[in-house]
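Supplementary notes for students who missed Thursday's class. We covered one full example, reproduced here. Read the sequence, then the structure, then the short commentary at the end.
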Amino acid sequence: MQITYNTSTLLLEDMPLGVGYASQKVTLKDINDQPLVIGGQNGHTQLIIAAPFINNDLLAQIKEIDELLVLNSLVISKSLVVATKEHNHPDLQGWNYGFDYDTQFGDYYGVRLGEGELCGEFTKALFVVSKDGALFYDELPKDINYPFSAEKAITKIAAAMNCYTGHGCHG
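Structure (token representation):
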């Protein structure tokens, strides 16, 4: 998959995890090097955002998503994931923040960038994981500088929360 960043064309090392597939629990490390487990079935709807860097544009998008979650009374688990510990901690209230110390997340979710300017970092990606651990929605902008569609993500989060019955896919 090709991703654009400024004037560069970047490639993902693997194919991203597809909607409908089971997500896997992966262990990250938080800023204190403590384990942080995200993904997989944990009984909660999860929003996972991966990013190659943390800048004001990304923080503004996260703030917009947070405001829409509150406005729509949606309570979920939220995580921001980066590839390495070298990134500045954004100190986001209500968000888990972790880095992929052993490459589990990048490998399983297929978001690691290959050769080029951001080699080894993650592409910008948004994942909604349903309570049963299935990938319900994903958004990987073709250009890292493009914003996420916050309104669409909120709609998908609400749908993921409402469709889960706890009785399997036909219950």
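Commentary. The radius of gyration is 15 Å. Strands lie at 2-5, 8-11, 26-29, 35-38, 46-50, 77-82, 96-99, 125-129, 135-139. If anything here is unclear, bring it to office hours.
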